[in-house]
Specification:
Blueprint lengths: L5 H10 L28 H14 L7 E3 L6 E3 L3 H4 L3 H18 L9 H7 L15
Antiparallel strand pairs: 1-2
């Protein structure tokens, strides 16, 4: 994976290559001179890969996720469908990455909004749950 194109390379390899999320992933970083970086993936490179990738994915400036104003928790940006016509494929990819992180026990730095988490687990939101989105 090229560090400067980490998201693009990950999408190409993981979505395009039909990678099994339950299998062990071997991560190799390529530097700016297109040379393989030294390092053996004993778990550290994978964790670095997941951390860097999720930092990019959940960055509100990237436009796929927004942050609540109150507690700065993340939720999907409703405009992501307008910004990228392949948004469904991308959100499937994002879910795969989060699922892989959970499966491997990698802690993510992202905090999801309560109303979004409730929706993910098919629970209904109450009026008070929406306060984090719109005080």
């Amino acid at each position: 994976m090229r560090r400067e194109f980490l998201l693009e390379d990950a999408i190409e390899k993981i979505v395009g290559g039909n990678v099994n999320p339950r299998a062990q992933w071997q991560i190799v970083f390529i530097d700016e001179n297109y040379q393989v970086e030294d390092g053996v993936d004993g778990g550290g490179l994978f964790k670095e890969f997941i951390t860097l990738l999720t930092t990019t994915i959940f960055n509100p400036n990237f436009s796929f996720f927004s942050e609540t104003s109150h507690d700065r928790t993340s939720y999907p940006n409703v405009l992501s469908a307008v910004n990228d016509p392949d948004f469904r494929k991308l959100f499937y990819f994002f879910g795969t990455i989060v699922g892989k992180a959970l499966y491997e026990g990698v802690l993510l730095k992202v905090r999801f909004a309560k109303f979004f988490l409730l929706k993910l687990i098919s629970k209904s939101n109450q009026f008070d749950d929406l306060q984090s989105l719109d005080p």
